[in-house]
Amino acid sequence: MKISPQWIRDFVDLTVDNHRLAEDLTAVGIAVEAISGSGPDTVFEMEIGTNRPDAMNHYGVAREAAAIYDLLLKPIEPNVPPAKGDAKFSIQVEETRLCPRFTARIMRATSIKPSPDKTAHRLQLLDQRPINNAVDATNYVLWEMGKPTHVFDMDLLEGGKIVVRKARDGERLKTLDGVERKLTSEDLVVADAKQPIGLAGVMGGFETMITEKTKNILVESAWWDPGTVRKTSRRHGIHTEASHRFERGADFESTVLSCDRVTELILQSGGGDLIGDVIDVVSNRMDQAPVALHIAEVRRILGGKIVASEIYRILKKLGFGVIPAGEAEQEFTVHIPTWRLDVEREIDLIEEIARLHGYDKFDNTLPAFTGAVVDLPHAAVDTALRNRALALGYNEAVSLTFISRADAERFASASGEAPVLELENPLSEEASVMRTAMAPGMLDMLAWNLNRGSEGVRLFEMGRTYEMRGAEPSEPQRMCLGTTAAAVKSALPAAAVLDVSKDEQSGVAEAFRLFKGEVENLLAKFAGELAYDRQTAEYFHPGRSARALLDGTVVAQFGQIAEDVKAARKLRQEVFLAEIDLERLYTCGLRQVKFWPLAKYPAVERDFSFVFADAVEFEQIHRAVLNLRLDDLRSLDPVEIFRGGSIGAGKYSILLRATLQSSARTLRDEEVAQWSAKIVAALQGLGGVQRA
Amino acid sequence: MWRGCPVPFAMYTVPKLTDYSAQALETAAADCVRACADEAAGVRNEAELKAFRDRWMGRKNGVLTQINDLWLKAAPKDAKREAGRRVNQIKAHVEDILLKAEFLRLELATGTPLRSGRVDISLPGIRRPIGAEHPVLRTSRELVAVFQKLGYSVADGPVVETDYYNFESLNFPPNHPARDTQDTLFIAGQQAKPPRERLLLRTHTSPVQIRTMEKMRPPIRIVIPGTVHRNDPPDASHSPMFYQIEGLAVDTNITFGDLKGTLDHAMKEFFGSRVKTSFRPSFFPFTEPSAEMFVSCFICGGSGKRGTDNAPCRPCKQTGWIEILGCGMVDPNVFEFVKDNGYDPKKVSGFAFGMGADRIALLKYGVDDLQLFFQGDVRFLRQFS
């Protein structure tokens, strides 16, 4: 909103310059956001809170300035000539609750022409286009005192009367903007004897507007129910300076004053006669109850020791009636001015006092506190996982919460068939559903990087996903890791390579193993035994993905992304994803560290070189050896894998290393030999052939 | 007299001392140490090293033993103390020379000269990639930590909220113009429900105020980090999703001064003790009085100018002040919704504040486009490692 400081100076004799005025107004909450122009043409760009319609005009701002500098605020006193004759016009208000007051004046034999220079110039400063002296008078009054008014061409009103009523369903009205509108019985209208001539508080009608031919004018200044104006304005998609003010609450007592001021301006510029007395239909007087203000309460809320005389001064300057009540100036009865619909309670007065006293004048204090300080229940788990992921080289990322419907279907909630949460008013089709999984956002971010020349990418995101569980929305927390094949391969230490076949398959196997290790690094923070199966979602590569189970509960799925997903998202590399179900990990709890005594006796290693069919996976080999329940077997590790060469198709050779160690004594050669034989037998039981 | 002799390698022999003056002792000790160093420098191989060690350290007739016998034992009583000090000094020097000779032996054994086999320490180190915390989340965590130290517990609540918690109980009446400022995203298919139960995406973290007050009786101090959503198309300064940090303190006798003092302290903790705060009136339906808090610009120090050429400071628009958050005293109407749980507005008072972690991160790190936070671009993220 624009305000001219020169115009403000009409009402208050300011001694400060415009910049100082802007600063001081801003400090009391009448914010000047920018200053443009210079001298008398200086313009303030204002930001007035939605609760302060009274300050959305020059007089209102002048009132604040008068309070700040303790100056006199000059009254607006329109000079209306004596009326001639009788208006013989009736105003009939059917909706007295929605239109408690309707004020009108009638002029005859006036002429329509351009506004005087001063009026036109002031409107132009505020970016308002001058139209003609009658219309400009209403705009001028709106910007001067904040009260919207309207002028009708009297001769175009049918039946010599105005009726304020609800529109009839299907009734039509062409509004001033030239749009033909279909009304409903929810709309409040100003009508003549025959039809609507204005949408109450929002916009006047086209057919009855002021034109060059207009001679006789009816000025309307009414008070409209804010809720009704708001609904009509929204229903028809019209936002006007008038509706903006009416829906925030206009000054009930200013209808006559504003009507007179418009009349004065029109008669001054266009000549003509005022006909009859002011027509003022008051069906329902707005009474604002006085508010009791206690000094003790002011201090309880604000702190400090603001004195009663300062409180009195501030409220009086803002137009409040302040009457001491009780004894020793500990209480006031405060009467609320009619333009301050936002003030109803003691706390509202306390805000006015704080505002004009100056927020920065209150001492900064720190409150005392007793009580426990707690973190979110899962903070420790989240922190542990985040720190691990960061240590593994994953960058923390954030993607938007919305996905497309297609992605919602493809990446269905990990919880199963739960219905999705769809937006009523999405930003776009691509962002119309609350994310059901982290995978789509992660894939988008990986693609973004690959498309910009970043090859080695590691990202993770922790956050909420959304689904309906029964009738209630649910927001399970998930974590997602995403990385490109290039990043995985570059991280692979030569010493850790197991499969030395040096073919494509071995590269894939080693990359998978590295990524699996990273997932394990995260899951190892939790209590319970890890196991894996291949039951992953369809968007994972069926042969290169796994599900991790912690004590039998699925906690993650990870691996290479499926070929079709890769193609659909135009990913320029293989990418790996891990989706971790935090809700389930929260129930597992972090692993408690337990101390093991350090070994006192030497460990013995024995290597076993075997050839197995591809169908025999390490898990089976491991289990077969563990099932031997050799007390002193510490571990069985794969050391080297090889395919091809002399090893037949469909088979692979594997070098296994058993580590044996007793906590009670040094192991003897013969017992180690005995256990080795058992291990060999177990491996042969799986169809393995020992190599020389 | 051995010195200057044309013999290439003259062996040192321990002279007998007759003069025990400090001066004489000094000269004798210096001769001995110099001789030891000269001989050590001549050592070429392991055998020579052994011979060198035996000659000087040998228990039976090593040079040190001889010195002990010839200088110390023979010393007159009144010179014994000074002689002993000198002998110990020589011993320490000889041991040191021998240790250095041992290193030489290592070089001889490995064939690599230790001193000359240096590496180029200016080559770049091999770094293991370490992930970076997201700048917004890092900012949020740092701010939360500031309030935790002030006694605030962390609270959270759902992102998909009801109209009741997001608006009604925060004193946004139905059809109130203040709702228009929130650009709410609504969940589809809610028409059959009563208005207050309809689901939407919370537009601020403030609903957690009510949710927490429903669960916990006063006094409370909570800080609430979380995501919020608005129907704002993404651009350099807008995002449909962003992060807020909300705070609430309720107790008997919490004042506006406490609100100011708490936030002033928190900003000094976060931005550094030099920043100043200033409060201006504002409007929020759920606080009264309401304020916007500004901090003195932490980029230009409040001058509005930057650098030696006095370039205009952009983050503060040359005003020297940056708007950081909205705050205020909890409106009594809000307490009315949880009055039965001990929040009688006549007995308790409180303050609340809310700030955008994205905006603060944007300012703190000088990021010029909000969208960078949500693209996962590693070129951007790695800068925060």
Could you give a quick summary of the protein structure above?
With 692 residues, chain A is of the alpha+beta class. Chain A folds into 5 domains: 2-69, 2-Layer Sandwich (Phenylalanyl-tRNA Synthetase, Chain B, domain 1); 90-282, 3-Layer(bba) Sandwich (Phenylalanyl-tRNA Synthetase, Chain B, domain 3), CATH 3.50.40; 291-361, 2-Layer Sandwich (Phenylalanyl-tRNA Synthetase, Chain B, domain 1); 379-588, BirA Bifunctional Protein, domain 2 (2-Layer Sandwich); 604-690, 2-Layer Sandwich (Alpha-Beta Plaits), CATH 3.30.70. Helices cover 30% and strands 25% of the residues of chain A.
Describe this structure in words.
The complex is a heterodimer of chains A (692) and B (385). Chain A has 692 residues and is an alpha+beta fold. Chain A is built from 20 helices and 32 strands. Chain A has a 7-stranded mixed β-sheet, sandwiched between helices. In chain A, strands 4-7-10-11-12 form a 5-stranded mixed β-sheet. In chain A, strand 25 and strand 26 (540-550) form a beta hairpin. In chain A, helix 10 (308-317) packs across helix 11. The model of chain A has no long low-confidence stretch (mean pLDDT 93). In chain B, helix 5 (135-149) packs across helix 10. Chain B has a 7-stranded mixed β-sheet with strand order 1-4-5-11-10-7-6, with helices on both faces. Residues 1-8 of chain B have low confidence and may be disordered. Chain B folds into 2 domains: 22-110; 135-384, Bira Bifunctional Protein, Domain 2 (BirA Bifunctional Protein, domain 2), CATH 3.30.930. Chain B is α+β, with helices and mostly antiparallel strands and 385 residues long. Chains A and B meet through helix 6, helix 9, helix 11, helix 12 and strand 18 of A and helix 5, strand 1, strand 4, strand 5 and helix 8 of B.
Greatest chain-chain interface? Answer: A-B, 86 and 81 residues
* CATH topology tier name of the largest domain in chain A: BirA Bifunctional Protein, domain 2
- Globally, the shape of chain B reads elongated
> Which CATH C-level class of the largest domain in chain A is it?
Alpha Beta
Portion in strands of chain B: 15-25%
The helix fraction of chain B, in percent, is 25-40%
Give the CATH architecture of the largest domain in chain A. Answer: 2-Layer Sandwich
* CATH C-level category of the largest domain in chain B: Alpha Beta
Question: How many domains make up the 3D coordinates of chain B?
Answer: 2
Q: Describe the biggest sheet of chain B?
A: 7 strands, mixed
* CATH architectural group of the largest domain in chain B: 2-Layer Sandwich
Report the structural category of chain B: alpha+beta
Strand count of chain B: 11
N-to-C series of helices and strands of chain B: HHHHHEEHEHEEHEEEEEHEHH
Gyration radius of chain A, rounded: 41 Å
**If helices are DSSP runs of H or I spanning 4 or more residues, what is the number of helices of chain B?**
11
* Fourth-level CATH superfamily of the largest domain in chain B: Bira Bifunctional Protein, Domain 2
Q: Estimate what percentage of residues of chain A fall within beta strands.
A: 15-25%
Average pLDDT metric of chain B: 89
